[in-house]
Amino acid sequence: MSATTTPTTTPNWTVENSAELYDIERWSDDYFHISDNGTLLVSPNRNRANAIDVKELVDRLDQRGLDLPILIRFNGILADRLKRMNDCFAEAINQHGFQNRYCCVFPIKVNQQRDVVQQVIAHGRQYGFGVEAGSKPELLAVVAMTDPDMPVICNGFKDDEFIHMALLAQRMGRTVIPVVEKVSELDLILKHAEEMGIRPTIGMRVKLATRGTGRWQASGGYRSKFGLTVSEMLAQLDRLIELGMGDCFQLLHFHVGSQVGNIRQLKSAILEASRIYVDLFRRGAGLKYLDVGGGLGVDYDGSQTDTDSSMNYTMQEYANDVVYHVQTVCDEAEVPHPTLISESGRAIAAQHSILVMDILGVTAQGKFQSDLGELPEEYEQPVHDLWLSLDSLTSRNIQQVFHDAQVSLELCMNLFSGGYLPLEQRVIAEDLYFAICHGIQKIGAEMGELPDELRHLDRTLSDIYFANFSLFQSMPDSWAIDQLFPIMPIHRLAEKPTRHAVLGDITCDSDGKVDGFICGGKRSRTLMLHEHTVGQPYQLAVMMVGAYQEILGDLHNLFGDTHAVHVDIADGNVKVQSIVKGDTVQEVLGYVQYETRELVDKLQEAVEDALQRGVLNNEQAGETVAFYEKSLGNYTYLSHRKAAT
Ligand SMILES: *Cc1c(COP(=O)(O)O)cnc(C)c1O
């Protein structure tokens, strides 16, 4: 795989500098690295020799006529995540001599795309893994898609139909276990089981006293929406035992919330649940499975801390803790070790997709002018003062110059509002002011440190890079919960990036921006990017968008689903396994009840009208309608291709 063009390089800057700047080693989990040509590489099995060049791939897709933005899913990463879950638990089970097995059930709410679920099923099969459904539609999808012996766990609130479906599957011999979230659901299970003449397999979710921390802490604890309190559970167990059905209660479940950053919370939840498990077992429940729910985090920002976008533990440590604590509690109580289940969704899916988007243009905040020449004498005094400030700027007086410049600019604006400063002088004043700010920023960069009050300058002076994507469609958690995702260019990484940037999307919403980044080892308000030249492609990737982002994304401004391609690598060859085309204009309009036929008819009428009035000729009328019809079938995002009729 050789690049066709020789990369531009910067003296004293290497791809290692880029790797460090974008913190790749911290968050990449060995899946991502940089080629000697300065392009982004993906190694789905973490073997550097086996790499997919993202830039080459994107160029190939462009030749096929596929426009950016494109979501790229690396099937090999999904396979590797599943393998790692299995390996980590196998290691822990081995180490501790645990007397049972582990099973991961993938909660499809994390990413229900058929291609994704199929991959998870195909690669999880060899480890005996299963899936989790949290609603009727999810259950109906997985009941048909899974193998006969694959476990399916059913969480979420359930009605008659949901439970009937689960029991129909049980009657077919499938391991489809409904987890009781409310007492009334157990009533339904017992009713349907009796009608169908089967002995049901039942799971129950317990409300633990332990709460998670962070964003989703309300998923656990006494006030959680879900599950039975311990006292309710005891009452229901007594009821089952009375019916001679204690053995039907086979699975105990809990879930403390997603992206648990601190391992201590998980530990206490596991301990508490294990105690409940052994007590229920000894009271006569036929428990076989302990399901520890989700919560296993992903280190989005690579900081290895218990902050919202990170976690202070590894997958191996998680596996060790689950196995060790369950085993210790069971051994103490002389209760057989359960089959361990975890519903890890984010940890399986997050890394496997990236969104590649192109930069459309840049708005710079003022420019750095070193030689402005002399000002005409008749210019107002504060404009001259700005000029003098700029002229006098040195590393020793930056703070004073900055204060003077602020005062002068304010005076200029007051004069302007009062009608005493002509427009062209105002423009010069603003140019001078920003030139001073840029000058201070440059001196700061050379000194390595700016005084506190000037630290915001990087952000104030940053360029806005407009990227061809919708934040609301493709990374909603950046907007909704301020989650960080790593973002970096997919090429030019052998060149030094010199611009401080924030990203703007193409929605007409001022919230459609990204101004939190992982850059230079910390959370940063700007991202270093390369100078953008109009007409030259400049492409960025948002990493780790495989969990939750697709399904939570919405149609703000009617930007639809992006194209998605599934890619894998075999024997060094990169293969595009499938291309799922994104929404067309006509499809997104259909979601909000516009019918193509009616739209075209209406336009046709308007064109007819114009024809009658003599403002269009027949050829122009035909061209207008043909163009409209064709546009309805196109991608909702901006295209670099020439509009053709
Ligand atoms: C959302 C959810 C999960 C998935 O959690 P992750 O943190 O993504 O692994 C698992 N179980 C239940 C009950 C959930 O609601």
TrEMBL record:
For this UniProt record, give its keywords in alphabetical order, as a comma-separated list. Answer: Decarboxylase, Lyase, Magnesium, Metal-binding, Polyamine biosynthesis, Pyridoxal phosphate, Spermidine biosynthesis
Give the catalytic activity: L-arginine + H(+) = agmatine + CO2
- Orn/DAP/Arg decarboxylase 2 N-terminal domain location, by residue? 99-350
Single annotated GO MF: arginine decarboxylase activity
Which cofactor is essential here? Mg(2+); pyridoxal 5'-phosphate
Under the heading PROSITE patterns, the entry gives:
ODR_DC_2_1 (PS00878), ODR_DC_2_2 (PS00879)
Superkingdom: Bacteria
Where substrate binds, per the record, is at 290-300
In short, the EC number is: 4.1.1.19
- The Arginine decarboxylase helical bundle domain extends over 377-457
**Active-site residues?**
508
Domain Arginine decarboxylase C-terminal helical: start-end pairs: 585-638
Question: Residue positions of the PTM N6-(pyridoxal phosphate)lysine?
Answer: 109
- For this entry, list what GO says about its biological process: L-arginine catabolic process; spermidine biosynthetic process
Q: What is this protein called?
A: Biosynthetic arginine decarboxylase
Native species: Rubripirellula reticaptiva
Gene, per the UniProt record:
speA_1
